[in-house]
Amino acid sequence: MKYLTSYFALFALLGISAGCSTFSQRNPVPVEQLYRAQVLSGVPAVRAWAGTSSEQFMADLTESVRQEMITSTKNGKAILPTINVLTLSGGADHGAFGAGFMNGWTASGTRPEFKFVTGVSTGAIIAPFAFLGPEYDGVLKEGFTTIGAEDIYQKRGISALWRDSLVDSTPLERLINKYVTQDVFQAVARAHQQGRRLYIGTTHMDADRLVVWNMGVIANSGYSEALALFRKVILASSSIPLVFSPVCIKVNVDGVPYDEMHVDGGVKTQLFLTAATINLTNIRKQLGLPKTPEETTRLFIIRNAQTGPQPKSVSRKLNDIMERSISLFVKSQARSDLIRIYNFAQDEGFGFNWIAMPKEYKPPPQTEAYDTAEMNKLYNIGYEMGIKRDIWRKLPPGMGQH
User: Fold this and answer.
1) pLDDT for 174-205, tens place per residue?
2) In 120-181, which residue ranges form alpha helices assigned H by DSSP?
3) Distance CA 225, CA 190 (A)
4) How far apart are CA 303 and CA 354, in angstroms?
5) Which residues touch 6 (CB under 8 Å, ≥6 apart)?
6) What is the pTM of this model?
7) What is the Cα–Cα distance from 76 to 289, expressed in whole angstroms?
8) Which of 38, 13, 78, 35 is nearest to 287 (CA)?
9) DSSP label at 292?
10) Residue 17 DSSP symbol
11) 170: helix, coil or strand?
12) Which residue intervals of 45-94 are DSSP H helices?
């Protein structure tokens, strides 16, 4: 990301904030009304604030479990089939690793169907296709091995100083629109009707919160611009703030129109499981399900980056120091997320499985972001890992090999 971080240095030197220009006027929700804003009026469980209890999401999650629940005579109790959850992290062009891994996992013959899929940033781009299953593996391969930087952004040059982002991300928007078709949209709607759930996380800039979107609810809303909203959420989740333009989403409060500014979900978290604080005890009680030590729920986490230390000499230059600092921060965030999810899995008796890009991978020092050859290399690394049956790690970083 040499080209992008050089812009960070430029802005730091000049002390200029691109967001203060008159280029992009907006109508933000008054701060005291932030939590009352509605995207699709009258449609419940469209989204939730991470870390806050949501009755609507609780009801939707309960219903999704009920839809997949089967009845057996085991102890006279209703039981669930094994539930598989896939969580996809950020990683920008390193998403090629995750795309390759999904294809390799299919080839191994061990890839399950996922009841829940969550994603942020590049993981948000992978998520719909991973959610829909192996028939979309070709889309993932094409989308991460045939593109280059010109398909993601256009350089602005000095004009970035009076715009709302360093580069023009219109190419990324076009790419998302190309692959997230009406057929994909309708397939997500059908999967939701069958009890499966797709969640995408964005960062709400005004609220300073992670917002998690229930994409199947959007797909089933009947809203005339639902497909456009679906695509916007994915674009927002993958829009690195300052580098790419924020995405404004139309909302209303008591019928008064406003807009919300959303950016990369990776600003708040690299990995997440649930949209809000979910009380699984209450859900089990409503469904008559006992808590058992059996592994009836399996978590699979794909980290589209490395997690362990990667020592290297850093020059005493602003660009290099800034690039290294951002990289270390994001890596630390991802490690904390893995530990948090592991602790949750331990408390609930869930199976915990994760993988990350191998520590042996060394990116070429002068490669710019979204280099086609390097993305193909990462895709192949992911594919080779995916076809292995014993690749999953069971302990988070710091508690086992990393």
Assistant:
1) 999 999 999 999 999 999 998 899 999 999 99
2) 122-132, 137-145, 170-179
3) 18
4) 8
5) 319
6) 0.88
7) 11
8) 78
9) -
10) -
11) helix
12) 55-68
